[in-house]
Amino acid sequence: MEAKKRCDFLWIGITRFDVAAPGITRLGTHRDEPENNPLTYYERVKTITMSLDDAGVARNEYAFVPFPIETPASLKGFLPTTVRCFTTICEDWNRKKIAVLEGAGYVVQVLWERDKKITGTDVRNLLAAGDERWRDLVPPGTARALAEFDIADRLRQLRAVP
């Protein structure tokens, strides 16, 4: 929502959109594990759309684009460098991401720097454990989408794979 306040039209980049793609650079370390990115591209788009709908953001004010930060040489094929990239800094990964984007020619605007209060790991752990407190940690649209896609069951299955 903070990024949307700073532009008329927001491009929402979806990273790891093709987890089976060859030649992926391992930039995100723990993000490379399937259980840490359990949603497909479609599911992420739908989840974000549901939350933006709830927030009253008109659908003609944003769009989604695959954003393969894990293959930096291909970024410009998805989003021109004239589009400003917004990000936050909550961990070292964010600093690496900024370096990759700036190295590819993008202007990066940091929205804020602070420690994470709630992590995706926290939410995924509660989901997998069947603990309904996860719903209080995400926007209502996200909660509806994760329930619709039965992400809790998917996480349990992914965690059961050796």
Keywords:
single chain; alpha/beta; two-stranded parallel ribbon; 6 helices; globular; 162 residues
What is the string of helix and strand elements?
HEHEEHEHHH
Low-confidence stretches: none
How are the strands of the largest sheet arranged?
A: 1-2
| Rg calc | 16 Å
| Strands, total number | 4
Question: Any idea what the shape is?
Answer: globular
Structural class based on helices, strands and sheet pairing: alpha/beta
Please state the average pLDDT score. Answer: 89
Q: Helix coverage percent of residues?
A: 25-40%
Main sheet properties:
2 strands, parallel
Please indicate the percent range of residues in DSSP E strands (runs of 2 or more): 5-15%
Number of helices: 6
- What kind of assembly state do the chains in view correspond to? single chain
Q: Give the CA-CA distance, first to last residue.
A: 38 Å
The count of domains is 1
Helix-strand blueprint:
Blueprint: H1 2-5, E1 10-14, H2 41-54, E2 62-66, E3 85-89, H3 92-103, E4 108-113, H4 120-129, H5 140-148, H6 151-160
Parallel strand pairs: 1-2, 3-4
Helix pairs in contact: 2-5, 4-6
Report on the architecture of this protein:
The protein has helices spanning 2-5, 41-54, 92-103, 120-129, 140-148, 151-160, and strands at residues 10-14, 62-66, 85-89, 108-113. It is of the alpha/beta class. It has one domain (2-117). The strands form 2 sheets. A two-stranded parallel ribbon has the order 1-2. A two-stranded parallel sheet has the order 3-4. Helix 3 (92-103) links the parallel strand 3 (85-89) and strand 4 (108-113). Helix 2 runs antiparallel to helix 5 (140-148) and helix 4 crosses helix 6 (151-160). The protein is globular. The model has no long low-confidence stretch (mean pLDDT 89).
